[in-house]
Amino acid sequence: MDDIFVSYTEKDVAWATWIGEVIEAAGRTCALQEWDSLPGGNFVVWINEQLSRARWVMPVYSPAYFTSKWCTTEWTSAMARAELLPVMVEPCTVPAVLSAITYANISAADETTARENLIYAIRAQSPPRKAKFGFPGKKTAPPQQAPDEKAVVGARWAKIAGALTVGMTLPEARTATIAAVTASDDDDDFDDSD
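Below the sequence we write its predicted structure tokens.
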């Protein structure tokens, strides 16, 4: 017994085989006409066997899928058993009778996201359970950061350089430097715009 029978139209064979590859890499088994319906066999009998044996039927939704009489037969048969795992590979209008069944939409996803969504759909892994919009309560301000040490040192040097003038004697330069450092220490934000 295969876990999943992938129901698709010939137009979507590339999608179907990619889906089959993901399903089997995730540890599930699947049946696809492209891989499993041998030449010379009776196609109608083969489809009937797959629909009877599979735990789930995975219709591959696309505009071509819903115009195929064979695909319509497959999804309506599977719907009678209520074991559909649909996946949309191309935007299309889903028949009203199927609109209540959630499908995995991978039509606009990148490969990684499409693979993850498909793995979640086949129940091979649970999706991450996270809050959709983050914390809904009161937002708090981010913690205050200590002043950048390089900026503080740079501001002090700027004050010292501003206090010194050409022609000062060493004692005058020392006094001016001490006064500039003291003013910088007293200034809480080390504002160098003074």
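The first strand starts at residue 4 and ends at 7.
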